[in-house]
Design brief:
The chain is an alpha+beta fold and 239 residues long. It has 7 helices and 6 strands. The protein has 2 domains: 136 residues, Trna Endonuclease, Chain: A, domain 1 (3-Layer(aba) Sandwich), CATH 3.40.1350.10; 73 residues, no CATH class.
């Protein structure tokens, strides 16, 4: 995977709208730039989606024919002819033998019918299609505030997990996830998670850490209509 070597084309400081900032991404291998709260919400969603294996933000797109014409003339390719798509995702979908590259633009629903937005998204579609890449527009309706808050809470338990540590935690995360799906214990997460973890020889902190890793890896699926919180019951999606 090459996402850790990728550098966001547009820095967070280049944003003219929204609240820009840098966010840590396991699937990007470090800090990435987001230019709005909507992009931050989408980033959290992609982080927790098990089909997304790599994330690149502010990914550059340019017209190949125009670029080659400038090269032949020995001229620099002008910056204003290069645009970026908010996310370039690498997807690994079960049943499909190859990786899929998928571009995503985050845009407020209220802006979707503006002529300049329609034109911009069509340009993105056209440029991505040349490289065999799909495209999607996602709005604030894709990730609710409750879902986003749940992801942030999950990430808080992974705060000190290092990138190279994830592989070492996979076995324990899977074991805990299987035990949580099988337990008949009820009550808030603050009661159930340490109880099940204790049976596996885990302390409270490690139990919640492995729970978050299990959700990140897709061993467990959270029902996103409910808030993930210690004081609330565990709400997993069950097959």
């Amino acid at each position: 995977m090459s996402a850790p070597q990728f550098e966001c084309w547009k820095k967070a400081s280049d944003s003219r709208v929204g609240v820009a900032g840098y966010y840590f991404s396991f699937k990007a291998g470090g800090q990435v730039a987001c230019h709005s709260h909507l992009e931050a919400r989408l980033l959290a969603y992609f982080e927790m989606c098990p089909f997304v294996v790599e994330i690149r933000t502010q990914y550059p797109l340019w017209n190949r024919e125009s670029f080659l014409a400038y090269c032949r003339e020995g001229r620099m390719f002008p910056r204003n002819e290069l645009m970026t798509v908010d996310f370039m995702l690498t997807l690994k979908v079960p049943g499909i033998p190859h990786l899929i590259y998928h571009g995503v633009s985050g845009k407020p629903a209220a802006h979707l019918k503006l002529p300049n937005v329609i034109s911009r998204h069509q340009r993105e579609v056209d440029e991505l299609w040349i490289w065999g890449t799909s495209h999607e527009v996602m709005t604030e309706d894709a990730v609710s505030e409750v879902e986003y808050e749940s992801y942030l809470r999950m990430f808080s338990y992974m705060k000190y997990v290092e990138l190279d540590e994830l592989e070492q935690l996979m076995g324990g995360a899977r074991q805990l996830s299987e035990a949580l799906l099988e337990t008949q214990a009820d009550g808030p997460a603050s009661r159930v998670v340490p109880m099940v973890g204790n049976i596996l020889g885990l302390n409270r902190q490690t139990s919640f850490r492995l729970l978050a890793v299990a959700l990140f890896l897709g061993h467990l699926r959270w029902d996103v209509q409910y808030l993930f919180a210690r004081t609330e019951p565990l709400k997993f999606v069950r097959a």
